Amino acid sequence: MNDDHIARLAAHDVAGVLALELAPGHAPAQAALGQADAARLAEQVGRDLGALVPDARALDLCLAAAHFDPAEALRPGWPLHRRLAELHARAPGGSDAPRLIAFGADADGQVPLPLVADPTLKGGSLRVVPYLLRGAPEAARAAGDAFESKLLDAGMAQAGTALLAQEAFGARIEHARYLTVHDLAAMVSLQYGHLGLAPLWPLIETALLSPAGDAVLDAPPEPLLRYADGEARIALLSPAAWRARYAGDVDDDERLQRMHAQFEMRQKQFAAVLGAHGVPVQFVHCDNADADALR
Q1: Least enclosed by CB within 10 Å: which of 115, 147, 252, 288?
Q2: Which pTM value belongs to this model?
Q3: Based on the number of CB atoms within 10 Å of its own CB, is 196 exposed (0-12), middle (13-18) or buried (19 or more)?
Q4: pLDDT 10s digits, 248-265
């Protein structure tokens, strides 16, 4: 099997996360579990998923016993789950019987590179533990369809699983639930709406679901953005173009300076959120506020 094939997720793979909602101000003490705890958690997760969707019992479960920011699980190409696919393909064994495969910290407590979370994205109240279900296409598709239809409403982890995750990661966990990556995207979209980031979500969604697609944010007073060719382009307007687009009738220099400073902060905020989702950002100098200039 060549590396190009290993690196891709199959259309029937079931990509999901165990989402851990932390108590405020309580970050996990452990970035990743040792192998014994990782195996125990994989066993519990497999039992829970099999109880929710019996078709899942026929599939291999591959679990990364490490926690990540949700944005790391929502990146173009699904890199966290692609890493699991790579690790699954290289795992020893393999037979007609489904396998539980868990990856965690090594014997020295070091977290191997594929499982290292982005240190700049720590501190959020929601952390996710990624898993992948793989197997015969027909069984995997049936399980995937069932998970998509029921996890959002009925995907709470069993109490024993939540307690194990709490003790092993050294975290105070208020809720633990299973989500598909599409469920997670829907949840993050709602959160972004509450945070005033709703205008940006269509670009992120395009990058996730249609990475070769095109999406534009052209809605003053928001910055002018375009997602195309796998990157987000943010317009850096000339002073005259910015004033024509955003200043309206304002003619007070001090107020204009404040407005422009706030606008630049918004641009930086959007760039940071896109970066968290693994979307490359390019600032493009533009003489006019025309989205076509960002092609």
Answers
A1: 252
A2: 0.93
A3: exposed
A4: 888 899 999 999 999 999
